[in-house]
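2 proteins. here.
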Amino acid sequence: MLRTEAVVDLSAIRANVASLKAGTAADVMAVVKADGYGHGLVPSARAALAGGATWLGTAVVDEALALRAAGITAPLLSWLWTPGEADTVRRALEAGIDISVSSTWQLDTVTAAARASGRPARVHLKIDTGLSRNGCYVDDWPALVTATARAEAAGEVTATGIWSHFAYADEPGNPTIAKQIAAFRAALDVAGREGVVPQVRHLANSAATLTLPEAHFDLVRPGIAVYGLSPVAGQFDLTPAMTLRAGAASVKRVRAGEGVSYGHEYTTTRDTTLVLVPLGYADGVPRHASKVGPVWLNGARFALAGRVCMDQVIVDVGDLPVAPGDPVVLFGPGRDGEPTAQDWADAVGTIHYEIVTRIGPRVQRVYVGDPA
């Protein structure tokens, strides 16, 4: 095996998308932002399309352009951009990428790009239904809709979509869910009265795709679930796609009473074996996983010994036989007893999204499984 590797099972991504698609009458947009949640942008996108996704979504426009450059022709939506990216938006329109619009200044930028490129822009109007993040505030929504209707009549834009995003879909039954669905329907009614009738209406993220069929509308946007990680409690037909592992770089026998790693926050209590693993916080291992991050080595589970360093961590394995090069698994699907990304999230008080997306570029992505 390689020194460090994130093994990505593309057949798992394909199967996860197929499972999500089987649970809805809506089309599926697989969200592949953040380099496919750390799994690899282009391979993840292709596996998701093979699983039945008909759309792809990215946060930043450059990732959507990279998908086009890789020869992917499926409908694409990108939604996070600033005034300094006007030229990037123009290139996106020329590449046939749909652009999200949340304000009149964004609409003005997009219509200018459409005039420059000589083709109408495909836009998805985003309404803020209660997340208070991106999206047009409800008081400003009528003005944005009216301006969009004018631009559509002028042949500058096509209102391809209207969309929003949940704040609490990962807590089924939370009262904000019904409020956001109602606010979304009200926004659609306002748009309809102005003659802005989108081709697709979309609201459901991974959690809503799994648990809220009333929020599916025309299109669902699963992200983390594409990669086999569920944002809600329950049993779903999902398989985690990433395994993070490294070869043991050093194995040595030490005496009791030895301080381990910076600050000697861990001290050996007996004669023992210390195993050096060449993964650290520069690779995405959380520094606050010191002394608690779980690993799997030769059929047994251990916690990290001492502080996480920039490039390496240490594991105290007692009397377990270990040789240099033996694989050390930080997380995987969990089928063989190894920790999962959720186990790491629980250990360090975060979410599994962060665990997989923070894995850095020094860790080689190794692709297995048939994406087709």
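next one coming up
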Amino acid sequence: MTAAGGEVEPGLYDISAELYHQDPIPGGSLSSTGLRRLTDCPARFKHFLDNPEPYKPAYEFGTAAHTVVLGDGPELIVVDAKRWDTDETKAKVAAIRAAGNVPLKPEARKRIDDMAEALARHAEAADLLQPGSGIAEQSAFWPDEHGTWNRARFDWLSDDLIDYKTTRSVNPDAISRAVWEHGYHQQDAHYRRIAVELGLVSPRAAFKFIFQEKEPPYLVQVVELDFPARAIGAERNLRAAHTYRLCQAIGEWPAYSDTTLHISLPPWAEKKAIEEIS
């Protein structure tokens, strides 16, 4: 990832997810997740920077689903044991994880295969991920006009940007809430900017999310965010990047407030209370 002089070269790299998440950029780079944490609170960003997130089973299921659907990722190894809490099975599972692979219970593997079959029956989603139409799990690194390095890992890079997400529900209202709660509008803006700046896609390229439910019947929904959502995401990213540079310069990563806050009820709660007494 470096030039002859040892400097990092902007571009697209086929590297492991582990190396990407370790952040190979000297001095650090901003990921979409990092920008979202900065938007919430600089102190939270700094905590996770210094204390990488511990293992969570839900992450492994998502990783395994990505591997099957996108055809790229770690090896999936089924551990057919009645109990996973015995010393023998725990040692086997730990060894699989240590080797960079994903251990799965038989029922989890069956569920993921069923999800892949359901997605293959969804005409638009299947067409977007048609083998040979793009490349999976590619990492991009790019410095902005301030010299701040940014990074992104594209699920599927073709003429458009495709991101696959497993979720509880693909009901449009549920997806809208998930976009806001998880900051997917910021991810859209961040990934799109990096891809365009590196010349990987046209400025008119689409960013499409493929959402799929994790329980039967494994419903699938392809989604594009509208312009206001993307604009809000881009603005949040710019403010988060400014906060990042400021905190780096002063060496302080503040929380929400050092003094007493006066908190109101959410607008919807106030409206409901007024309706109840009117």
